[in-house]
Amino acid sequence: MRPSGRDLSEMRQVSIETGITKHAEGSCLIKVGDTHVICTATIEDRVPPFIKGSGLGWVTAEYGMLPRSTSSRMRREASAGKQGGRTVEIQRLIGRALRAGVDRSALGERQISIDCDVIQADGGTRCAAITGGWVALRLAVNKLMKAGDVVSDPLVDPVAAVSCGIYAGQAVLDLDYPEDSDAGVDGNFILTGSKKLIEVQMSAEGSTFSREQMDKLMDLAEKGVGELVEIQKAACS
């Protein structure tokens, strides 16, 4: 039924390779099927002005897609002189998703910036960026802890994200581009490792959906995030 031949509750193949860049405090390449995203973490001894002096840390994110990450070349946003609305929305989503798993008091008054660069897109780029972004963040925090710059672990719970939707009338897990572009309902689910919800983005793209269908999508999301968290932990061990 699915174009890829996967079962309804089957994720695409996921891999996370860490330490892919020389200079970043944390880095990884996450592959979710044919969606590939490079995530890097940078530690800075400063925070935004609105929390300066509070003793709290900050985690923020930037997101971008390379010109040939898609089937036809996209113009670089830098050449247009500004970021598009989609880019701004996604990087804000990544930042607040990752902050939900952080004890900002334990982090101390420093900022960790997560850069997510999509080098190949086939659906679910924001979910892959969040999932890989947490790995880059985990690796950067590990360095802080090893150096003794933080006393207790500021990462209280892993954070991961997965897409779910209604495709051909069925609830499916982890939509690739052919499914995403033709789904009647499309959603992104961001959860912690302990299955607490951070954010759910749901929209009816061509048909409405019932409470029963929503429950099925939630069950699929919990299954998918559970699998992703295990892959995250293995990558960071």
From TrEMBL:
E.C. number: 2.7.7.56
Binding positions for phosphate per the UniProt entry: 86, 124-126
Top-level EC class as recorded in UniProt: transferase
One Pfam family recorded for the sequence: RNase_PH
Keyword Lipoprotein found: no
Catalysed reactions listed for this entry: tRNA(n+1) + phosphate = tRNA(n) + a ribonucleoside 5'-diphosphate
Matches recorded under InterPro entries: ExoRNase_PH_dom1, ExoRNase_PH_dom2, ExoRNase_PH_dom2_sf, PNPase/RNase_PH_dom_sf, Ribosomal_Su5_D2-typ_SF, RNase_PH, RNase_PH_bac-type, RNase_PH_CS
Domain Exoribonuclease phosphorolytic stretches: 10-140, 157-224
Keyword Nucleotidyltransferase: yes
Keywords from the named record: Nucleotidyltransferase, RNA-binding, rRNA processing, Transferase, tRNA processing, tRNA-binding
Any one of the GO BP annotations: rRNA 3'-end processing
Molecular-function GO term, any one: tRNA binding
Description of how the protein assembles with itself and partners: Homohexameric ring arranged as a trimer of dimers.
Role noted for this protein: Phosphorolytic 3'-5' exoribonuclease that plays an important role in tRNA 3'-end maturation. Removes nucleotide residues following the 3'-CCA terminus of tRNAs; can also add nucleotides to the ends of RNA molecules by using nucleoside diphosphates as substrates, but this may not be physiologically important. Probably plays a role in initiation of 16S rRNA degradation (leading to ribosome degradation) during starvation.
NCBIfam families documented for this protein: RNasePH (TIGR01966)
Family as reported in the entry's similarity comment: Belongs to the RNase PH family.
Entry protein name: Ribonuclease PH
Organism name: Pseudooceanicola nitratireducens
